[in-house]
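Box S2. Input/output pair 1.
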Amino acid sequence: MGALPSLSIKGTRWNSTTKGKEQSGTAPEEMRQAITKAKLPLGAPFEGQTAKRLKDNFRTLVRGLERAGRLKAKYSVHDLRHAYAVKLYKETKNIYFVKQALGHASVGVTETYLRSRGVKGKTA
């Protein structure tokens, strides 16, 4: 969540800073489409927002969806990160790629993410 306020997208690449570390990668088309659909600027979609405000807005959205019966449980922003890790691992079967994509310092952290969602990531 901390990376979103500084997120910028240029062409097919994204760039951001979180915990003092620069991160970048290829911006998936579905990401670009979602930002465009939300009528946010691709160059800096969350400019002027704080991580806390984005987190609070997400929490409010989830509560509303839960009350409306569209979600069976509450989800946090961090739950999305875990879900992304599982999706990426299932697609690639490469735990080292997932580690790098999430910016983890060790593959052990990535394994913990996957185990938290019932997936056993293999290192070899």
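Box S3. Input/output pair 2.
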Amino acid sequence: MFIYPNPVFTTVTILFDPVLNDAELTIYDLFGQKVKEISHFSGSALTFDRGSLVGSIYFVQITQGNKVIATGKLVITDQY
């Protein structure tokens, strides 16, 4: 999994290898609280807007078929 840009100001793209099918992305804050979830996506890349996520460090988890495929760290900044 490759996350760019990181740190993120507005939009982030996550690349996957191998290609995923019906996967789920979950983002957790530093306290382990689920703050964003994107379900039922497929392909080798996912691009999304930070939405209401405030500037902080987050943890990303990708699952497919109840199996953790990848984990990573995402930094969101409020300054460009």
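Caption for Box S3: The chain has one domain: 2-76. Residues 25 and 62 are 5 Å apart (CA to CA).
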